Amino acid sequence: MERLSHAVLAKLSGLSGPKLDEFATVWQTLPVEERRRASRALRDMAEENIEFEFGSVFSLILSDEDSEVRSSAIEGLWEDDRSSTADRLIALANADPAVTVRADAIAALGRFVQRVALGELSNRVSERIRSAILRLVDDEHPLPVRRRAIEAVGYLGDSDAIAICRRAYASTDAGTRASAIRAIGRTCDPIWIDIIIRELGSDDPEMRFEAAQAAGEIEDSRALPALLAAVRDEDPEVRLAVIAALGAIGGQEARQTLQSVARGKDPALVEAATAALGELDVVGDPVGLRVHDINPN
């Protein structure tokens, strides 16, 4: 096989049958650094161009002996919704020798957990995924594994998810608390709004970032005052998350604030605010009004 340049990698799109077998044979002979470079390039190419279909290749290299290659393969399978892929992710999440790979596998399982919550999978597959995720929040597992599992559980939004979120939020570990806020956002449940508002004022920028994202997912207008106050947060990632949340929640004040930011000089903030304003228009809020702006009296 030729050196795995971009042009050569592009030819791997849609690979199957004997050609895939040939690729597998050659792949095993490549030095680890070459496999790492190629797997990262395939992942990036698939993300940037939807016409590339490397699913069969990613599935193959998911068994690579190198953990970095396995992680790239997991990320490359981000749109693969086959139950067989969920099973392989569960296996990696449970037993891969690299903690980073286990954590990446659980993060990828999150989209399957979301589909479980939406009732899009069979009862048998749903139960298998649900049971696996709930087991992985136990203290016996490494912290990065538990954190990703906590975050994925949020999609379930049921009594188990609520209990896990509450327990994680009560943790003395800052990272676990941040994961709890991410999970809380994924529940899309307004019962958490007081916690989100409180964490928007946290001293920890990671907590403020997660709280802003959670506010955008829950879309509760009660978070607007805290979000409006956080538009000029000292942390750039927090500011971007706040802007996105304002676009998700909407309302006249949110629109006016986003318009002001869009007229600013910071390119990243201008781009984010413009996108958020576009989100307001897409969801049918052409004049900056949402249901919460309308006084029924």
Please tell me about this protein's structure.
- With 297 residues, the protein is an all-alpha fold.
- It folds into three domains: 1-79, no CATH class; 81-187, Leucine-rich Repeat Variant; 191-292, Leucine-rich Repeat Variant.
- It has helices spanning 6-10, 17-27, 32-48, 55-61, 67-76, 83-95, 99-117, 123-135, 143-153, 159-169, 174-187, 193-199, 205-218, 224-229, 236-249, 252-262, 267-282.
- Helix 6 (83-95) crosses helix 7 and helix 6 runs parallel beside helix 8 (123-135).
- The protein is globular and about 60 Å long.
- The termini are far apart.
- 40% of the residues are buried.
- Mean pLDDT is 93; it is low at 285-289.
Please outline the major beta sheet: none
Form type: globular
Distance between the termini: 73 Å
Order of helices and strands: HHHHHHHHHHHHHHHHH
Number of strands: 0
| CATH architecture verdict of the largest domain | Alpha Horseshoe
Structurally, the number of domains stands at: 3
So what's the CATH class of the largest domain? Mainly Alpha
By helix and strand content, what is the structural category?
Answer: mainly alpha
Number of helices: 17
Entry keywords:
Leucine-rich Repeat Variant; 3 domains; globular; about 300 residues; mainly alpha; single chain; 17 helices
Write the layout of secondary structure elements.
Layout: H1 6-10, H2 17-27, H3 32-48, H4 55-61, H5 67-76, H6 83-95, H7 99-117, H8 123-135, H9 143-153, H10 159-169, H11 174-187, H12 193-199, H13 205-218, H14 224-229, H15 236-249, H16 252-262, H17 267-282
Helix pairs in contact: 3-5, 4-5, 5-7, 6-7, 6-8, 7-8, 7-9, 9-11, 10-11, 11-13, 12-13, 13-15, 15-17, 16-17
